[in-house]
Amino acid sequence: MRxxxxxxxxxxxxxLAERLAARGIxxxxxxxxxxxxxxxxxxxxxxxxxDLGLPDGDGIDWLRSLPTDRPPVLILSARSTLDxxxxxxxxxxxxxxxxxxxxxxxxxxxxxxxxxxxxRDPVVLKVGNVTFDTTSRQAEVDGQLLAIGxxxxxxxxxxxxxxxxVVPRERLEGTLYSAAxxxxxxxxxxxxxxxxRRFAEAGEDNIxxxxxxxxxxxxxRSAL
Length: 224
Ligand code: CA
Known about the structure:
The chain is of the alpha/beta class. The protein has helices spanning 10-21, 33-42, 59-65, 82-90, 103-115, 150-161, 169-176, 187-201; strands spanning 2-6, 26-30, 47-50, 53-54, 57-58, 73-77, 95-98, 124-127, 130-133, 138-141, 144-146, 166-168, 208-211, 215-218.
């Protein structure tokens, strides 16, 4: 999952990004409205975290200006009155949390937002004998736990969510790497081969396929 954190407190934004990354949520950071617009113009985000008191405008006004096909928005603000929360939600925010909030709860709410709208994506993804728990970030083959890193977990999650389809490399790069953590030429293939090695060790050596020049495919090759 990739999010945009709009927050003018740099220290808080960095801390949040770091702690979310440990939970499989990559973030770009915007310090205000103008920067947020710049990120929105070039990046693809699964969710947005929005502070309201920003140096170059109010988050509520910015939220109003967004197109209807925007990603879900979680307001994270120190404004804590009932009026503030109702206004935020009525303006179209999908969720509202008052600062300070625990990162565990922020991550859980982001996952819930991404599971909507109308989609009932399961918490545990399962394809054949492979399962991935999107909350604990643990992957198993036939109940055998795989030792995988954060990028491998992000990669696997996206492939499992799109099992049976070729996932374009641009989409994977956009999800795994943020503006602060740019992708290098062979980074994706390195992640894929580490993942393949873990699968092979668990006895599953023909499940993750590279579609040269296009992307990656998860499943039995006959379905390609
Ligand atoms: Ca602020």
